[in-house]
């Protein structure tokens, strides 16, 4: 049980009053599990949108919940900073996990997540064959790949892991540098396309695995490079994906995240299953630090002025801070 920070009586009372109602207590428990939109909370709790919004407003005002707006959507999450954060977590920690109401809410949350994941999976299944065209919505791919090569360098790598590998383009790019490379994706359709690409490229050191980015079917403490390229904006819990990615890193290994900088293209949500409209530098760096990694660098690749409203692509690099006991890179003979 975490020990609360102390609060002035007025703030403590405001927090307790905000939490002291059945729906709001349930909201707190749900928002401790996942970042959710109002419409998702409406589905889970079966109450009207104005009611849920009113409860959320009270929780936000008392500092127990954080809200962040992004385009037409607003996301809510239990507070992780400010005086109310410890109080909110203490209150949630005191709710019996086996309480029937909590269990039912948890089951409906799992249902909402499953429905969302299926919707994204349908999108990827439908777009697998022309995915490489969709990628051209942002700054030219050649520039992104050149920047990535620059970041990764030319030293030989032992093991590379590509999360949300899609059509396997990152593996095509990085596997030649590595002794072995593994790509994970939840979509069998995408993996079929990746398999064909990698065979065509003659890459024999690559393995593809179907799996969830939140529960990776890979070894821990193993990979000296993990890449998450254009995947996080589809996820409902990018911080969790980052923690899972960090577990796969060997001591001293690097995590490279490539995604969009914040933008306002709502159509990517409506037509392309995006959940998040890009990420700020600070947000991804916060996820990386929370996953126990040390920040190495950040870089933006902005579209040129004549490229209309193409999206800026950002690169974040972090490193596992543990000491390297078995120095890299490998010898050229091992790589060959
Ligand atoms: C936009 S594609 C990017 C593919 C590749 N990284 C690239 O840049 O070409 C996103 C990929 O993430 C995969 N994906 C989405 N959610 C996932 C999850 N929870 N677990 C594993 N893969 C996921 C999708 O199936 C899709 O292939």
Task: Sum up the structure in keywords.
44% helix, 14 helices, 20% strand, 336 residues, globular, binds S-adenosylmethionine, alpha/beta, 7-stranded mixed β-sheet, disordered C terminus, 3-stranded antiparallel β-sheet
Q: Fraction of residues in helices?
A: 40-55%
| Strand line-up in the sheet with most strands | 6-5-4-7-8-10-9
**Ligands, deduplicated:** S-adenosylmethionine
Termini separation = 52 Å
In N-to-C order, the SSE pattern is HHEHHEEHHHHEHEHEEHEHHEEH
Report the mean per-residue pLDDT as an integer: 89
Gist of the model:
The chain has 336 residues and is an alpha/beta fold. The chain has helices at residues 9-19, 22-33, 38-45, 49-61, 83-93, 100-127, 131-134, 141-152, 169-174, 188-200, 238-248, 267-272, 281-290, 332-335, and strands at residues 36-37, 65-70, 73-78, 157-163, 178-185, 206-210, 223-229, 249-260, 294-301, 313-319.
